[in-house]
Amino acid sequence: MSDIIFLSKVRLSFPHLAEPHAAGNNPGALKKYSADFIMPEDHPGFKQFMTKYGELALAKWGQHSAQVMQLIQGDRKLRCFGKGDEKIDKKTFQPYSGYAGQAFISANKIEAPQMIEQNGQPVDPSNTMAYQAMARKLYGGCYVNAAIKPWVQDNSHGRGIRCDLVAVQFAGDGEAFGDGQPDVSSMFGSVAGAQTTPQQSSESMPETPFPGAPGMPSFMS
């Protein structure tokens, strides 16, 4: 647990938490669960992450750690963290929403991360529907608490600093990133020959048994 970093109330971005995602939408790439976490550069969690990174680098590369870390710093593909101004939208050539003036940490993992209820209890990972229902509520722009685990890469693919995504918990609403789903209904008219579906009044509808009544599934937690 000593390598686990806790990020308190950071903003979630580019979440792929309900289903694993192939980086760059490359169908041949390995699919992973992933997310970015945005925070001020002086955020305690970011400072803790950088301290741990230094410790891991020193343990791995010894007297050469400073030189290796400098090489990693110079190539964004070799590191899982950075200044928000580095995250440039290729369409606008501006930093993505929420990144400017901030720091970020990207984390991912092949295995699904833990989903933590607001009461602190983990969602049963075997309950796929409950897991995905919670994961889909975590939108880009909301605030979350997260547990991540940094590790240094030193293999045939090169040297770098990476981060495992361990757990995520909803911490509060925030302004959603992006434009949202546009309403284009005003662009459409009726189709020739189409019949209007009659609207049934609520007075004529049979009374629906309350959730949990005998013979009815309960939708209340």
Written description of the protein model:
The protein is built from three helices and seven strands. The chain has helices at 44-61, 65-73, 128-137; strands at residues 5-22, 31-39, 81-83, 103-109, 114-116, 143-155, 158-172. The chain has a single domain (5-172), classed as OB fold (Dihydrolipoamide Acetyltransferase, E2P) (Beta Barrel). It has a seven-stranded mixed β-sheet with strand order 3-4-2-1-6-7-5.
Spell out the key features of this protein.
about 220 residues; OB fold (Dihydrolipoamide Acetyltransferase, E2P); 3 helices; about 15% helix; globular
Cα(first) to Cα(last) distance is: 31 Å
> Number of DSSP helices?
3
Sequence of secondary-structure elements: EEHHEEEHEE
List how many beta strands DSSP finds. Answer: 7
CATH architecture verdict: Beta Barrel
Beta-strand residue percentage: 25-35%
> How many domains in all?
1
Helix-residue proportion: 10-25%
Strand order of the largest sheet: 3-4-2-1-6-7-5
Structural class: alpha+beta
Our Rg estimate from Cα atoms comes to 23 Å
The CATH superfamily title? Nucleic acid-binding proteins
* Largest β sheet strand count, sense and barrel closure: 7 strands, mixed
General shape: globular
Averaged pLDDT:
86
* Uncertain segments: 179-183, 200-221
